[in-house]
Amino acid sequence: MTLVGVAVGAALAIVAVFIPWLPDAASDQAGIVDSVYWVVTIICVVVFAVVAGVSAYAVYKFRAPPGDMDDGSPIHGHTGLEIVWTLIPTVLVLGIAIYSGVALAQAEDVPSDHRTIQVTAVQFAWTFTYPDIDVEGKPLTTGELVLPIDQTVRFEITSNDVIHSFWVPEWRMKQDAVQGITTRTTVKPTKLGTFPVICTELCGLGHALMRSQAVVLSEEDFNAWVEEQKRLAREGGAIQGRELFTQQCGSCHTLAGAGTQAEVGPNLDDALQGQNADFIRESIVDPSAQIASGYQDGVMPANFGETLTQPQLDGLVEYLLEATGGGAR
Ligand code: CUA
């Protein structure tokens, strides 16, 4: 029996060691969080092995012989044992608490040269605002998070409706988005690439679809991206409109021309078919004005009139007219 146990244990250990349990670690904070995770996991594995081992031994050693219908002999407490099994967990739990607290303080440490990005959650989309990047008199706002590598970012997170939660698994840090307050978290991305932005708080029917992307670029590419956003915002036009649509509207609306398939809001191939520019513009800036049948008021963010510049709005309307074969222009 011992041999079988050892063989099974060895096989499981090999499997356990070779499975990549955690997502790629793509931020400074990921290393800190992973250390805490593994230290706690190893402590739990050891505690579980000791408890399970002693239990299995006791079941085997002290089992009743066949036919024995007696009650077990009465046992009183054992002060020594009780002290030991109170002390060990107390020390473990206090140790883990202190260690985690130090790790959290480390992860949330913000250097003075950090960048601030505001994250706004609505059912069911993310908006990212860069308060220090001015685009045609407004702070740059996108539906996709774009960051330069190796620069600490302080996220200021809020919600316009219910509670959501901002999470990029590869960065590990996770923070709730709550209406009326600003929560914060810190990330220093250390890997180039595209990572999912996930809502990790059940927030309604579209919760599972409430996703965006975090794109980490080199500093040079990031600056080029910022210039491109400025240029697009200046020029407007249908090409920019299409880009805006995929970034800010595509996570909720289906539009064949843009290749989006979300079903949170009305399918625009149907809803905008043959509609004119005025209707489209009104639907964007004042979504409560006319509600498509079968859909609820207050789901679509009502602040696009504020976050989009005039050329952006014009470009979006122009693109939607083109894409849905709109009528009177
Ligand atoms: Cu937003 Cu789940």
List the topology elements.
Blueprint: H1 2-18, H2 28-61, H3 79-107, E1 115-122, E2 125-135, E3 138-142, E4 145-148, E5 153-159, E6 164-167, E7 174-177, E8 183-187, E9 193-199, E10 211-217, H4 219-235, H5 237-249, E11 254-255, E12 260-261, H6 268-271, H7 277-285, H8 304-307, H9 310-323
Parallel strand pairs: 1-5, 4-10
Antiparallel strand pairs: 1-2, 2-3, 5-8, 6-7, 6-9, 9-10, 11-12
The protein binds dinuclear copper ion.
Dinuclear copper ion binds at residues 121, 124, 164, 199, 201-203, 207, 210.
Give a structural overview:
The protein is an alpha+beta fold and 329 residues long. The chain folds into three domains: 2-57 and 87-107, no CATH class; 115-218, Immunoglobulin-like; 236-324, Cytochrome c-like domain (Cytochrome Bc1 Complex, Chain D, domain 2), CATH 1.10.760. It contains nine helices and twelve strands. The chain has helices spanning 2-18, 28-61, 79-107, 219-235, 237-249, 268-271, 277-285, 304-307, 310-323; strands at residues 115-122, 125-135, 138-142, 145-148, 153-159, 164-167, 174-177, 183-187, 193-199, 211-217, 254-255, 260-261. The strands form three sheets. It has a five-stranded mixed β-sheet. Strands 4-10-9-6-7 form a five-stranded mixed β-sheet. A hairpin with a 2-residue loop joins strand 2 and strand 3 (138-142). Helix 5 packs across helix 9 (310-323) and helix 7 (277-285) packs across helix 9. The chain is elongated. The structure holds dinuclear copper ion. Dinuclear copper ion binds at residues 121, 124, 164, 199, 201-203, 207, 210. Residues 121, 124, 164, 199, 201-203, 207, 210 line the site of dinuclear copper ion.
